[in-house]
Amino acid sequence: MVTVTNLKKTYGNFTAVDGISFDVQKGEIFGFLGPNGAGKTSTINMMIGLARPTAGEITISGIDVRRYPKKAQAIMGIVPDDSNLYNEMDGFDNLCFCAALYGMKREERESKAQQLLERFRLKEAGKRPFKAYSKGMRRKLTIAAALIHSPQILFLDEPTTGIDVESSRQIREMIVELKRQGATIFLTTHYIEEAERICDRIAFIKEGKIVASGSLPELMHSVSHGYAVRLVTDKSAQSLTGELQNRFKGSKVTIGQEHSVVIASSKRIVLLPVMEFFHEKGIEVYEAKELRPSLEDVFVKLTGIESSVLRKEKGGKR
Amino acid sequence: MKSWIAFWNILKKDIKNYYLKPPNISWGIIFPLSWTLMQLIRSPDKNVLQLLPGLMAMSVLFGTTSMLAVTITFERSGRSFERLLLAPISLNVMVLAKMAGTVLFGVFNAFVPVVFASFFIDLSFAHWAVVLPAVLMIAITSALMGLLIAVSAEQVFEAQTLSNFFRFPMLFLCGLFVPIASLPVFLRPLSYLLPLTYGVDILKGAIVGMNAFSPALSFGALAFFAAGLFFVCRRQINRRWIL
Questions:
Q1: Helix, strand, or coil (residue A196)
Q2: Tell me: the pLDDT tens digits for A68-94?
């Protein structure tokens, strides 16, 4: 759906984007993560035709964005980080106006605007001026405006930044629902948990370069080359450490606090034999959980940036 | 067809959101009326007819240049202008749609002194078939100057300051208050480089029969300025709005 090759953007002596390449598959949610100034907005601006690349290629649905930006814009829906609708117009008129920019006829745009207001639970607010909307409502209407012409690909720049928890949740649900309906979504976010929750593939960008990209399991595997299981038992298994390591060859057993046992291995651990072992020893197992690095761990390890830095940049924890 | 739908809706939105707002309607009426009264008080012996071309030109110039510069800068600072840049319509269509509202506003402004004057004098002998296109051309060139300001300014106050920087010297150099022949020699070439000079001259010819150039030459000059300004604006837009 989207292919970006050796994309570069310089402003004078400053290189904002330094020869990045990636692709976005049809029907997936692609997350683009990085701190402020990493090159996310420059990249997205080049992809949507709002900035000219210094070098490199961008194709969207086979359209060369550099050569035919207007043709490409016709199949894009764009949600900027800051809602950019008209304050003095009401919600319904804003949607109708956006539809008119895509050449939609009056009956078509009015019916689509009504549908979107209902779908985004904004029907009641449809006749209120946009300036009277809360931040969450503003963001929802901006997403609705981006969907008015049924785009093939949706660009979402920080869609949940600075809005209340409930609106964020609703927006995430909408994004997932759009994906279910077959939309391709390119999403930039500061919230690692959000990316982890909804993205199919993710790219980390730092100082204009992509430091890692891939699906969640691929990214996690790139920082952790083994598997681990944590068990919580009714009594201490300290005395069984050696025996456990003998029974499960190649594993490493660590006894933790509060009767917990961590078994690490280069191969995936099958739980049933482990449970049987403890059962034989008269130890009850209350809980068994596979330990995996979180996306946050992966991000910190690959970029060297603490995730708290990202949260601080966009105002608070989610 | 799609471009036409977009053009018409941008124009309709601008008229509804900006030009039909009470402050702008009152500006469009009060401003030309104030100019008219000022001129009448200053020169009570002067014929209203002689004042009319100048009043019309000033009303168009002031209405158009500032409106387009301010509305575009206002939309750019609120980022709603980005929506127009991202629409799948050519930049030419978008620019023409934005200009169309301002041009209509300018034409409306121009005819306020005419309506006012019609209560005092007989205007039936004026060549309205010439006046109307002349007013339209003044409005187009003034709107393009406003667009040039909008491309250069980042903030609304900058747009207003730049507008005045253009407008006031133009008023004194276009032959409106001081005939070009009476200007110092070194300033005269500047007069001929101003579109308003030719617009005012057509209006003077059509209303009081006192034109210095042939109307064909003046219309040609205005068309040349309009094309040139449009070309410069488009280049600047490409350079400054699509980074």
A1: helix
A2: 999 999 999 999 988 889 998 999 999
Contact between residue A141 and residue A130 where contact means Cβ atoms under 8 Å apart: yes
Please write the tens of the pLDDT for every residue from A117-153: 998 889 888 899 999 999 889 999 999 999 999 999 9
State how many domains chain A has.
2
Q: Are residues A51 and A183 in the same domain?
A: yes
Distance CA A23, CA B147 (A): 39
The verdict on a CB contact (< 8 Å) between A89 and B89 is: no
**Structure-token match 């359209």, residue found:** A63
Domain identity same for A50 and A155? yes
Does residue A318 belong to any structural domain of this protein? no
CATH code of the domain containing A230: 3.30.70.100
- Sequence-distant (≥ 6) Cβ neighbours of residue B189 within 8 angstroms: none
Q: Give the whole-angstrom CA distance, residue A25 versus residue A3.
A: 9
Contacts of A87 in chain B (CB under 8 A): 78, 80
Distance CA A78, CA B66 (A): 31
Chain B positions touching A85 (Cβ under 8 A) are 80, 83
Joined tokens for residue A250? 């190649």
Domain that holds residue A188: 2-221
Q: Which residues of B touch A80 (CB under 8 A)?
A: 79, 82
What's the complex ipTM? 0.83
Record: contact B86-A48, CB cut-off 8 A = yes
Contact B9 A105 (CB under 8 A): no
Of A51, A80, A102, the CB nearest to B243: A51
**From CA A237, how far away is CA A219, in angstroms rounded?**
33
Q: Is A116 helix (H, G, I), strand (E, B) or coil?
A: helix
pTM: 0.81
Please report residues of A whose CB lies closer than 8 A to that of B86.
Answer: 48-50, 73, 76, 78
A119 and A199 in one domain?
yes
CATH of residue A196's domain is 3.40.50.300
Which residues are registered as beta bridge partners of A209?
Answer: A206
C-beta of residue B177 within 8 angstroms of C-beta of residue B171: yes
